């Protein structure tokens, strides 16, 4: 009975994947007709406007458009025009069918925080296709491997997004101190706050420059500067930048010397970085000891398996009533995880 259920499940998943593939190949991406009509309308409007412009103004406009398209807009603001590639079309159509409407905004927000140039439906399509492919490949060897492969293909992209997000936040935190110094120097030189931010966006490396350019563009498109700064704070999720945003918002309400305030914030962040460095140095021994103690059972088990495989495999085949030998392995792994969790919590000191 179990083999028949597994066979029915495999056939069902294969049929669903085949239908999705046909839809992705022959179907049109959502909004393609609207995009085509809008592009035609924009082209006709531009041609009508040029008909009433002198020739020299048309040439100047072309030069400015060419320069702005090559240097001005950021990747997040640009839109792809024309035909989409086959892979993007497949991902877009498959993802539009399986992406939950309530989670699309949250998925897109996490991808933006991780600086991954994918849409929510494309990301969900990658997860679905990875799970289906791994399940189909590994199921031929063993049904359990197929299930594990499907879970691996579905959850590994989420782990990759979290790692990329943590790396981006770490890179952003490393650039905050230099950003505050440049902002303070710009304000002391007579620039306004927006002009100082524009200067920093040109001089600073990514991701600081990318985020500041986004704030400036949102403000130029009509968004309030306070809301743009709050949006930046929500995207980066940095405690140090949260302090900067709070101070800037308070200063815009009550006034004061912003350059002096930014210098004090920079000094505070510098002291926090020094204290964090001291804590990491003093807790490094405890962290290494915890990792060694946690990995010791695995090394001992591996060594015993190499020397005497039959002896170590008895724990997986032992039976005594309702008790099974592998219960000990599961219990040991659970207590191992609990011990590592508490040990990391002890050495994790917030500043």
What value does the Rg take, in angstroms? Answer: 28 Å
Distance between the termini: 58 Å
Indicate the structural class: mainly alpha
Strand content: under 5%
For the residues shown, what is the average pLDDT?
77
Q: Oligomeric state of the chains?
A: single chain
The stretches of 5 or more residues where confidence is low (pLDDT under 50) are: 39-44, 68-83
Textual characterization of the structure:
The chain is mostly helical. It is built from 14 helices and two strands. Helix 10 packs antiparallel against helix 11 (239-254). The longest helix is centred in the C-terminal third of the chain and has 50 residues, at 258-307. It is flat. The N and C termini lie far apart (58 Å). Residues 39-44 and 68-83 have low confidence and may be disordered.
Briefly summarize what is shown.
The protein is built from 14 helices and 2 strands. It is mostly helical. It is flat and about 80 Å long.
Main features:
single chain, 351 residues, mainly alpha, two-stranded antiparallel sheet, 14 helices
Strands, helices and their partners?
Elements lengths: L1 H25 L5 H20 L3 H17 L14 H13 L2 H13 L6 H20 L3 H46 L4 H11 L4 H13 L4 H12 L2 H16 L3 H50 L1 H9 L1 E2 L2 E2 L1 H22 L4
Antiparallel strand pairs: 1-2
